[in-house]
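Is flavin-adenine dinucleotide placement plausible here? Inputs below.
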Amino acid sequence: MPSEYDIVIVGAGLIGSALGLHLAHKSDLRIAIIERSSQLKSNPVPNQRVVALGATATDVLSNVGVLDELGPEFCHPYTHMHVWDENSRGELDFDALDTEHPQLGHMIDSNQCTLLLQKQAADSAKLDCFFDCAPHALELFDDHAVLNTEGDGPSDIVAKLLVAADGAGSWVRQQVKIFSNHRDYGQLGIVARIKTEESHQDCAWQRFLRTGPIGVLPLAGNQSSIVWSADKPLADQLMELSDEEFSTTLEEALEGRLGGVELLTARRAFPLRSQRAERYYARNTVLIGDAAHSIHPLAGQGANLGFKDVVCLSELLQAVDSDSIGRPSVLARYQRKRQADNEQTDAMMSALYTAYRSNSAAWSLMRGTGMNWLSQSDSLRRLFVEQAIGL
Ligand SMILES: Cc1cc2nc3c(=O)[nH]c(=O)nc-3n(C[C@H](O)[C@H](O)[C@H](O)COP(=O)(O)OP(=O)(O)OC[C@H]3O[C@@H](n4cnc5c(N)ncnc54)[C@H](O)[C@@H]3O)c2cc1C
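Reply from A.M.:
I modeled the complex. Tokens:
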């Protein structure tokens, strides 16, 4: 006999596990999550990768009981943002005082956050979670989907609604033949944890270099996590430097604003690509998070958009009876609400990426003038801050 659920979520990353828990807290729907990898285990070594999450994302994490569990080592509030440009005199400051919030957002260890979400999901009596379980065939019918899986878990699963939360290379998206547009930036994002001589002052520092932006994301105890985006040849060279050489190069790239830099972890490099699914649903299957959209991390928005998908889909599903959750009319509403916002943010990231790459005198002047102008306009700055803090 197949296992029957209202909703099956494929992928227990940040976004899939958050949706499962959010819905389990707010509804009586029968939910399963299937994840092809093993459940994450705690690692005493800190992770290099941190995500800057705004209010929507942290509200979800708080509702499902994960935010408080993270603790100061894995979750650090930041109250300022300082942006400057290698090629112009433009400088830009954002402050939590421009908002009604005590902070602009939180820097959260993405591994630890996913681990806690997975643990909550695995321990919850309100949903089933299958790890080491990968789908290998999918059939869609008018009012349900049938998924065949291999590994640990039921081999046949029937669901009224199938949610693809299986990341940028989504297997589900390919099965339901939703086309997706890809852009390869030809860059790598190098991430690592560092300690700086000077205090980061709970400020997220971002410098736009000709070769790509460096973000320094503040953590507890004068530690920070960096995301250094650079064209592949340069990124390869940076990856080959010794720890000491890399630290000195980073200190220089930051103009010494945070003093000496000590590298605390190994470096990891991620290829930077963006991807937009042409549509967000096909029959009774819907895409969320990176399965629907992934963007350049220069303003730290990818997961924030995914959490907005979670809230939107969750609210729509709670508002209809359980027999309607897989109806195209419901899923079309989700697409209408989320696709434009996600695509606008992607377009903004692409425009920023292009604007900061140009070294021509005219572009440098425009950038510098634009940044200083923005810095002086309270209303425009507030608009940017609202976008940055995920409102
Ligand atoms: C360098 C870098 C820095 C970033 N910084 C930020 C930031 O500061 N702020 C921010 O908001 N975002 C940031 N992002 C983006 C953010 O990391 C992603 O948007 C987010 O992690 C996407 O989560 P997801 O759950 O949708 O996908 P994923 O994290 O890719 O999770 C997908 C899950 O599905 C599982 N899976 C895949 N295929 C299958 C299958 N066939 N069957 C079952 N399971 C499957 C995978 O094992 C995984 O667990 C950054 C990204 C990069 C690369």
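Short version: The chain has a mean pLDDT of 90.
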